[in-house]
Design a protein that fits this description.
By secondary structure, this protein is an alpha+beta fold. It is about 45% helix and about 15% strand.
């Protein structure tokens, strides 16, 4: 049996001009309801050799390569990481006043999802130099942990940065941050900080061989490990190791 349909006589007939006007009206209505897709743009602005292995790595990355005017205004920054703790990119979320900056948790989470991050480290600076986290800092951390958890993204750490040091929520056991890599001992942290400080002084003029090696990620890691081995094996300070390594490389 055939389906029965009601025959409806056309109530209006559009000519070419009328139809064109209707199309314009429909386009206007559609534009009002159209939602723009969030786009993420990656800019090559900072170099970082190696993986994120400790809060010290994060601190040095933020202090030396990103944060400007660290004693003038508060900045809030998120670092997005892959499953292997490699940096996908960083997001300079906001810049505020001398004692505060605004954070949009929903927007921060949206950017993390868009970059396909599996982990996030957040950080902000205290221009005052005080490393103690405020109640607002702790509350914000909990809110971000909850928001990221819905998308199976871990908040590894919240690091407060000043000119002379940092405070790691993970190392101090603040909040409910879980899943960070094992922290280094205080002695290891001090040693690593001193080595990084000395390697920053290496130039093409004072240590050409080491400088050349350090221009690639693999070479930088190799130099860093060479310094660590000398310090631990020969009981030397990093400042004395670097010229010795340069001499050894010159003789090869």
């Amino acid at each position: 049996m055939a389906y029965k349909t009601n025959q409806v006589k056309p109530q209006m007939v559009f000519d070419k001009d009328t139809y064109s006007e209707l199309e314009k009206e429909l386009d206007t209505i559609e534009a009002q309801f159209k939602v723009r897709e969030i786009e993420i743009t990656f800019n090559k602005e900072a170099l970082f050799f190696g993986d994120i292995k400790s809060s010290m790595d994060v601190y040095m990355f933020l202090k030396n390569r990103i944060l400007k005017g660290i004693e003038v205004q508060e900045h809030f920054i998120a670092i997005f990481l892959s499953q292997a703790n490699k940096i996908i990119g960083y997001y300079h979320h906001s810049t505020g006043t001398i004692n505060a900056t605004m954070v949009d948790v929903e927007l921060l989470t949206a950017v993390a999802v868009k970059t396909l991050a599996k982990a996030v480290i957040i950080s902000h600076n205290h221009p005052s130099g005080n490393l103690t986290p405020s109640d607002a800092d702790k509350s914000l951390t909990r809110n971000i942990v909850k928001a990221l958890k819905y998308f199976d993204i871990s908040l590894l750490d919240h690091i407060i940065v000043t000119k002379n040091g940092y405070y790691s929520f993970n190392e101090k056991g603040e909040g409910s941050i879980m899943g960070y890599v094992p922290k280094l001992s205080p002695q290891e942290l001090r040693l690593r900080e001193e080595i990084l400080s000395q390697l920053k002084r290496v130039t093409e003029a004072n240590a050409p061989n080491l400088y050349e090696m350090m221009q690639s990620p693999q070479g930088y890691e190799q130099v860093e490990q060479m310094v660590i081995d000398k310090v631990l094996h020969d009981q030397m300070v990093p400042a004395a190791v670097i010229p010795l390594l340069e001499t050894e490389l010159t003789m090869i």
